[in-house]
Amino acid sequence: MADMLSFNSTDAEYLEELAGYVAVPSVSRDATEETMRSAAEWLAAQLSFAGARVVATEGHPLVRGEWLGAPGAPTILVYGHYDVQPTGDLAEWHTPPFELVVDGDVIRGRGVTDDKGPVFIVLKVAQAFIEQEGALPLNIKFLLEGEEEIGSPHLPAYVREHADELAADLVISADGAMWRPSEPSLSIASKGLVTLDIEVTGADADLHSGRFGGTVANPVHALSEILAGLHTADGRVAADGFYDGIPELSDERRADIAAVPFDEDRYREGLGLDEVFGEAGYSTLERLWERPTLEINGLRAGGKYTVIPHIATGHISCRLVPGQRPERVLAAITDHVLAQKIPGVRVAVRPDEAGVPAYTIPADHPAIRAASAALEHVYPGQDVLLAVIAGTLPATALFEEVLGAKTLFFSFSTADENLHAPNEFMRISRLREGMRAWEQLWRLLADGPHRLAPVRGGGAA
Domain Peptidase M20 dimerisation, which positions (predicted)? Predict the structure, then answer.
């Protein structure tokens, strides 16, 4: 299928437009209501052809829109987000985080690859269809949220309340990076997530370490002992029940993973490490794609002054795989932690509100076939790799549960582009590659051998 749309703007024109979006510091964790609304309004203005509007929630607003002018055609729901991660240490940024900067063949700035750049691609494709053909090839609904980076806490209630309006035959996510820049890829799974704090409390207040040292339990010592006991020496999570429900990794799946070109030495060297480490009995790629994890993300207690802190907190996250249930994982960790009786302190486990199960889409799903064909069109002669997102996209399980629709990850972000880190960047070439691929995907889903069967759509009659 030949390209039919013309993307006539120059790269400079596209980047100037995207720069205005990146300049909005829409950090969902701590931005003002005005700032978040400003980002949402920027999106709504881009989707004026779809009757877009900014919709209030209990948290940051959503952007909704729909174009339903393709009678009998399938309906898709395009999902993405406009919020971004905090900048982290500004001293580690080479350029201002909320200023889009062209650096050779990449652009830099917070949100350029997660998820403002990938959403921008979709907007430009939709606009080109309307301007050049007067219509979209299929019915499209848009749902763009402002809380993905904090776990989408208010999205579930909204989706459940508006399920009929959001009904679709397929969700396509502009979020969810390709595996690596060396070949096109699609993700057929993403890991689930649970997060929690382990809190250890001693005395009623911080104590002078000279006057009281050696006479009271130190919460930092106790927390260190607890955290060290979360794993065995061979890298397995020590909590009984943590691995419940996970099927054995089949010989066939192991062979498939082993066949993926992967240079472990290059991976290790790229991280500045002398050696890799993880759960015994599995390769590095098997650990990334097929095994759950428990990571200590941070510690909070005292400081560089001579006190015995009265409280110490460890921040924990677990990435889950199919078969694990978030509530069971939390229970297993809680039981394990509380079973460690440490004198002189009180220990509490405080789970965060949201728990997300792992998500999968079959490799032979019609959407995967259509997306593979679209990528083969844009990257001729290259095989499309079926990969796994080791991170978590909270909305996927929600869409499947409430809307009965699978989610296709179709992002032109790449996993090495410093997502969530200082100096986030995106390859400029991905913008036009993504535009051509989204055009082909929509055409393939609308008609031909990869047509998506309309079931739940809600298009015009």
Answer: 188-339
- What is the arithmetic mean of pLDDT over 267-285? 95
Q: Are 148 and 67 contacting, i.e. CB atoms less than 8 angstroms apart?
A: no
CA distance 335 to 331: 6
Each residue of 171-225: pLDDT tens digit?
999 999 999 999 999 999 999 999 999 999 999 999 999 999 999 999 999 999 9
Distance CA 176, CA 192 (A): 13
Q: Please check whether the domain covering 11-190+358-446 is classified as CATH 3.40.630.10.
A: yes
CA distance 450 to 365: 10
What gap in Å lies between CA 398 and CA 354, rounded to an integer?
Answer: 12
Q: Using CA atoms, how far apart are residues 62 and 54, in angstroms rounded to an integer?
A: 6
Decide: 194 and 320 in contact? Cβ < 8 Å.
yes
Tell me the DSSP string of 40-90.
Answer: HHHHHHHTGGGT-EEE--SSSPEEEEEE---TTS-EEEEEEE--B-----G
**Residue 460 clears pLDDT 60, i.e. is over it:** no
In this structure, are residues 32 and 26 in contact, taking their beta carbons and an 8 Å threshold?
A: no
Task: Provide the CATH number for the domain formed by 192-246+292-351 in this structure.
Answer: 3.30.70.360
Per cent of the chain over pLDDT 90 is 93
Q: Give the separation between CA 223 and CA 345, rounded to whole angstroms.
A: 10
Answer for the pair 43, 122: CB distance below 8 angstroms, yes or no. no
Q: How far from 49 is each of 9, 105, 434, CA to CA, in Å?
A: 19, 32, 21
375-431 confidence digits (pLDDT tens): 999 999 999 999 999 888 889 999 999 999 999 999 999 999 999 999 999 999 999
- Terminal C-alpha separation, the chain: 28
Q: Where in the chain is the domain with CATH 3.30.70.360?
A: 192-246+292-351
